[in-house]
Amino acid sequence: MKRFVFLIMLLGCMSTTAAALDWWEDEEVEQDPQVSLEVKAWINRLRGNIAWGRSDNPGSDISFRDDLNLGSSSFAPYIGLNVGLSENWSFRFHFWRAFHEERHDFPRDIDFAGTTFAQGTDTMSEFSLSTYSALAGYRFIDGPQIDVTGMFGVALFRTRMEMFTEPDNPVTRDSLIPAPQLGIGVDVELLKNLVLRGHVTGMYSTLDKFDGCQTDLEASFVWTVADGLELIAGYKAFRANVDFNKRNRTDSADFTAEGPFVGLGFRF
């Protein structure tokens, strides 16, 4: 939670500074639209709880770390494509997939998707979260050293959990949830070839079938090492706290996936 508060405060300070600097900016520099591709590896750690059940059996509140032993870090692919449409408008598509698996003797009885796994059962647990987001961005502050961009669009989240004692008899539950997104991005030029970049996007819903919130926070350093080539290093934190009710299903999740990432950026 402290990391979330810190990143939100950082982006807020960057935005405030941007507004102050832009007040004194008299000239606008024309920039050609650009296309950039970012390929990164996200070393994420999973924490929190999830429950997948039915209306007549809500299922156990399962702890990723204590019940499933899914507390270790794992690598996740993280790809971003940014297209400059005009001087101030841009389009961003991002994809990442976090995957965790572990074989573990359950410390207690666990009800999952209508099936009970007894205490002490040697069970393989797999959890994945795939995210696809498409966001339009409008740069409303274009300062000499700081840019601020408003973002809006949609994200598609696919969660999948599988448990089995025998590979040919798995118990599987997955969900596919589209969600509107709003956010803000800030770029700060620290040096000629070094930029501090951050963004926060998310959603909040109080619908009967989908109640909760989701937040995606990120901060990174981007170093231009050659024309069209960047080195990227930063920290990403994804948080979901939702209740999802559809037909005879009752699903809930309150978890965080967070950790550092490194990668390369290519500008065309």
Task: Describe what this molecule looks like in 3D.
This protein has one helix at 2-22, and strands at residues 35-54, 62-63, 74-84, 89-105, 110-112, 115-117, 122-142, 146-164, 171-191, 194-206, 210-226, 229-246, 249-267. With 268 residues, it is mainly beta. It has a ten-stranded antiparallel barrel. The protein has a two-stranded antiparallel ribbon with strand order 5-6. It is elongated, with a radius of gyration of 21 Å. Residues 1-11 and 14-30 have low confidence and may be disordered.
Q: How do the helices and strands line up, and which of them pair or pack?
A:
Layout: H1 2-22, E1 35-54, E2 62-63, E3 74-84, E4 89-105, E5 110-112, E6 115-117, E7 122-142, E8 146-164, E9 171-191, E10 194-206, E11 210-226, E12 229-246, E13 249-267
Antiparallel strand pairs: 1-2, 1-3, 1-13, 3-4, 4-7, 5-6, 7-8, 8-9, 9-10, 10-11, 11-12, 12-13
State the share of residues found in helices, binned by percent: under 10%
Element-by-element helix/strand order: HEEEEEEEEEEEEE
Number of distinct helices: 1
Give Rg in angstroms. 21 Å
Any low-confidence stretches, pLDDT <50, length ≥5? Answer: 1-11, 14-30
Question: β content, as a range?
Answer: over 45%
The separation of the N and C termini measures 38 Å
